[in-house]
Amino acid sequence: MAAPTFSGASRFNESFHSPCTRGPSPNSTSNDTLLLPEMEPILPDLCMEQLWTEPTGPSTRSPKASKVFLTSDFCKNNFLCFLVDTQLRCVKFIQSNVESRLICTSVTNIPASDAAPLQSINAMLVLEAGGSLVLYTGTTRVSKVFVAGLLSPSFVRSGHAHQPDTPLASASTPTAHANRLPRLDQAAMPSPLSELRGSKHHLQTSWLEDYSFPQSPDVQALRDPVSNRITLELSNGTMFRVSIPEICTSTLVKKCLQAIRFILPKNAAMKVLVKWYNTYNAPGGPSSHTEWNQFVTCFLSLLGYNTERLAWIRNLCFEVPLSPVIAAKKARPSDGGSDEDWEYLLASQDLQLEQYIDLYWRDYPEFISKFNDSCPIDQALIGQMVRPSYLKAEPPSVLGWFSSCLWGEEVQPFPFLPGICERTRLLILSYALYIVGDVEATSSNQSKYLTKLTDRRGPDVVDLPGGSSLAEKLILWLSSSGFTLKDLESVPFGVALPIREAIYRCREQPYSDWSEEVCLLIGRQDLTKQAHKMSLANSKTSVGSGVSLEPSSSSSSTEPDEEEDGMSDISGESSRPVRVRVQQLPEVSDHDFIEEKENKLLQLCQRTMSLPVGRGLFSLFSYQPVPTQPLPVPKLNLTGRAPPRSTMVDLSSGNIDVPANMTSWSSFHNGVAAGLKIAPASQVDSAWIAYNKPKSPELANEYAGFLMALGLNGHLTKLATLNIHDYLTKGHEMTSIGLLLGVSSAKLGTMDMSITRLLSIHIPALLPPTSTELDVPHNVQVAAVLGIGRPPGPEMEYCTDRESYSLAAGLALGMVCLGLYQYMVGGHRRPQPGCSRDRHKSPSYQIKEGDSINVDVTCPGATLALAMIYLKTNNRSIADWLKAPDTILSPAHDYIVAGACLAVGFRFAGSSNSEAFECLYSFCRSFMKTLTSSTAAVTGHYNLQTCLSMVLLALSMVMCGSGDLRVLQVCRFLHKRTGGEMNYGFHMAHHMALGILFLGRGRLSLNTSNSAIAALLCALYPHYPAHSTDNRYHLQALRHLVVLAAQPRLLVPVDVDTLKPCYALLDLTYKESQWYKETTVEIMAPTLLPELHLLKQVKVKGPRYWELSIVLSKDTQHLRSILSRDGVLYVKLRAGRLPYKEDPQGWKSLLASKVNQHSSKLQAFKPEDISTFTSDAALVSFSELFCKDSTGNKQVRLVLELVERRALQGVPGPYSILLSSHFLSVIHSMADITMETWHNDNSCMLGSYLRTGVSANQNSMLACFLVYSALPSMPQASAEERARVGNMLMSFAPLGLPFRELLRLAPVLLAPPPGSVSQPVSVS
Description:
Blueprint: H1 30-35, E1 67-72, E2 78-84, E3 87-95, E4 102-111, E5 114-118, E6 123-127, E7 133-137, E8 140-147, E9 196-197, E10 200-208, E11 219-226, E12 229-234, E13 239-243, H2 251-263, H3 266-280, H4 291-303, H5 311-314, H6 324-328, H7 339-342, H8 354-363, H9 365-368, H10 379-384, H11 398-406, E14 414-416, H12 422-436, E15 450-452, H13 470-480, H14 485-489, H15 493-508, H16 516-521, H17 525-532, H18 553-557, E16 578-579, H19 590-618, E17 640-642, E18 647-649, H20 664-676, H21 686-691, H22 700-712, H23 721-729, H24 733-746, H25 753-760, H26 778-788, H27 802-815, H28 822-825, H29 836-839, H30 855-869, H31 876-881, H32 890-907, H33 914-932, H34 936-939, H35 941-958, H36 965-975, H37 984-997, E19 1004-1006, H38 1010-1019, E20 1046-1048, E21 1050-1055, E22 1064-1070, E23 1079-1085, E24 1087-1088, E25 1095-1100, E26 1108-1111, H39 1112-1124, E27 1128-1131, H40 1150-1154, H41 1167-1173, H42 1177-1186, H43 1194-1209, H44 1221-1241, H45 1243-1252, H46 1260-1268, H47 1279-1292, H48 1299-1309
Parallel strand pairs: 10-13, 14-15, 16-17, 21-27
Antiparallel strand pairs: 1-2, 2-3, 3-4, 5-6, 6-7, 7-8, 8-10, 9-10, 11-12, 12-13, 17-18, 19-20, 21-24, 22-23, 22-25, 25-26
Helix pairs in contact: 2-3, 3-4, 11-12, 11-43, 12-13, 12-15, 13-15, 15-43, 19-20, 19-37, 20-22, 22-24, 24-26, 25-26, 26-27, 27-30, 27-38, 32-35, 33-35, 35-37, 36-37, 41-42, 45-47
GO molecular function, one term: molecular adaptor activity
Pfam families: ANAPC1, APC1_3rd, Apc1_MidN
GO biological process, one term: anaphase-promoting complex-dependent catabolic process
């Protein structure tokens, strides 16, 4: 039988049978159900297709399976199980060569009334007809199950001798059963857990073999298997949730069991695994920390040893005494034997494998010397043993393989077990890649360096990731293979040194796009946090919290003598009463004095009402609202306090005339400012937007501004269409303006037809000729025209404020790149085609213009449209059209100069260019002097104030986000002026300049893209409103379009260890352009970066911090994501260095105080001093290895071999200080002297080893000497050859020749005489 199989995303670890249908939770609601995301269907592991049906007679009953599930056994064999009546049919299947088909090999029937799989332990629980619970692994019976709480208080052994139905009964090593089973107290059993879950009890299970236990009440069914947990349904309706124990908990034991599964035949491996499972999980078994000791005892007993007679086994510390069951089942030596028993005997000492003994002794001399017990085996029996093919005469030595690889010798494939010896596999392939230089070693050439001991499938081959050097290839491959720093720390230092060398090479100049795992491996926690997108801790010093501008309590409680300038807190000044300081003269009556105070308050209110425009820019994208709370909107306070008694002054007394609807647009700006605080990454949905709608109609204007702000920061796209329709049908002018401009901004450049239709409804010229004329307010039409991008039409003749309509149409036209030359130079009107001829045939009723175009109305918009159409084209002919005449008046000259300054501001917006700043600042000072001089009346105070505001806006654009002090002083000077020509529009310009100077609380800046300059033109058009309701020349809502030109560019270095902002040097490399060559500039961060398209590379510069390079050609998006998340760039301080804040000049560094850089002498360091300079585990381990008296055995040799290889190759070492050439020569010389001294004093011990081999009285220093001297193993030589080598060494000892020189002369000295047929001894 064959069936197609498919790979699924989720495994079927539960049975297909479900006893009950689970409905929704009692606490759930229908709304919760509707909000659940749509889940993908669960894909099965195995699909079966019916091919045919056997015909059955009328009397033949064809039973159907009541339960079907998949399971596996300890050896990973797969079974498809059907529960049919009282039989569990287990079909064993394997994967065929064709991936879509399976091969079924056998069918086994197990008597069962119910069964359920236990996926995590590769077993299944079977309920027999008698009510007993039996654990099976595949078709192999493991044991009966005892569940505490279901067993009667006393139980006795069954009267008959029960024979278990398991292959374990036929084991060749017999076990001695006890005559009787001691009575087990209930208290000694694992007690059930006290936790109750509804009607289900969660219990632990215990195990006993070969005994029957009466259970009451009976278990009726098994249900809800998950992992190793299952529910027992009893006859009385009670349910118990039980947990079946694992086969092991120790990682080391798990690896050993995997090796057994790979090495032994499946039948033998199954016997061992079942025996271990029953031993480990028997009642009163060992705890987790004695698991290894129990495994050793169990394994040796299976090998045939009498573990009670082994002394070193008795020294194993069992904190929990062995249970009687285990004691009764300890293995005894077998009287007979078979080949199957001898296959387990791998003990080198008992098998007299002297090569293995010598190798293990050299690696672990102290450990091997403790094993004095021997159990010699008869040579005749050893001859009967079948040796596996992988058991070579010469033992495999991974350290020797590494040493040969370092010396460039040809190496043989090293044996390994797939999935078990993964650490060895990774290290060998690492040496092959990094030392040998074989870039195909990790993929196609693995067989050259590794040989599998089994044909079973190993781990998938991981393709070598890209990298420019071998070090990068090695690190990327190790990371993709799951190798971590924790794994590296467990590798001996000498073995791990090549990997550490590669790590140090990659750590110096890593790539910013490396994954989090790679950054962890190379020890760059700064890059790890950056990759993991972690933010600073929520503290007052965190970058994202911004700068607190709230005034202190002391300053607010005391009243200063001078007049308040209003600059104490731009974010909250409009919500507090202003101070009205008016001195009452003797001849002024009280009534007149009250009028003076109210007139003064009215002047101050012009400044207060314009503050929200600047506040919106200042607090841009600085707040993330709480989804369950409304957005806090500061109140617009237009009252005042008159000192010295703080008398309340307001404008509602009726003493002076106050313009109608004076606060309409200021409330709109206040709502925009509140909405612009919301960051683009905030959680905003349609329900929250509607939730913020105020109930009071007085706050409708603020909500209209709030809607526009949501469009500017991109959140208005989440507003439901039904809500948009509801807002527009209310006919509220401000709401329509804010919604149309907001939707247009949110859908900028998308050409969304639904938004186009929405805007067209509000433009009469775009409606069909037969449509009903709609009474659309003029300002709404202006907003719609700009939103859709339409040129002016004949409908402009009937507008009350034609200038604003024309300007909006010109700006819109410029944005869609169309020409409008006629509206600039004038001329006759063109005849209107089609239906527009009849609808707009009447002339203007405001000015008698005839058939000519009024260029005073159309010229500003058309000129700006032409400028945007030919923006950055260097078109000389178009520039000549805009050339100023040779003879101009003084006011016109001032406006031309101010316009040129504004153009400079657009050109260098956000660049902080010093030359542009100095140029603009000089003109600003010039206009300020002219404004305060006696000649101001010639030009006009209004004209000069307009020009000064334009230059100030240009200055703030150049220094955007920097908070430059000189620009701030100009803003403060103009902010204090409230009389004369200083009206609402000028205050708005000054507050916009102040907001741009601190854009986004200093985190944002302006860019100079075409769309950004167009948005700045719309927002900074230099015709400011005369009062708060003035929209004749420019719609006030367009002032907020500055937001469309803003982008995050603040880069803040944050120490990855302290999570605090710090100073760090950056190297900014500019791309080559037509104005300058490729240039590198050094700046100190935190800083505002230039526009990213101008940069080639951003590099964190040393020497205090680890270097980090961000190459913009491939990491532009990565840098943009960093800047968008508050610009946090994690950096890591080098060992022995102090931050710039604590040590600006670098004179307090630990390296500067402890090491004299000018001294050429080697200085002595204690190992504990190294931790003062570094916390790197590699260097600390290195210091402990070389700076202490203990020898590192083979690790010292591997270190020196690696460095000698690097010296021969001419490759500089990875450690510029510790592993310098002087240091290595000293280490090499000291090691040689130490070994030669020991050899001179202990030559007899060395000779004894060479004659007799390893003995118990030889110390560990001999093993170190043999390893360091690279003396090959001698047990393979005959006694005569050993004697010759020993005598040679003894005879040459008085000559004082170094031992390495003797090894070089050994082939000559030991060569046989001419004509001899004896074989020479190889000792080199």
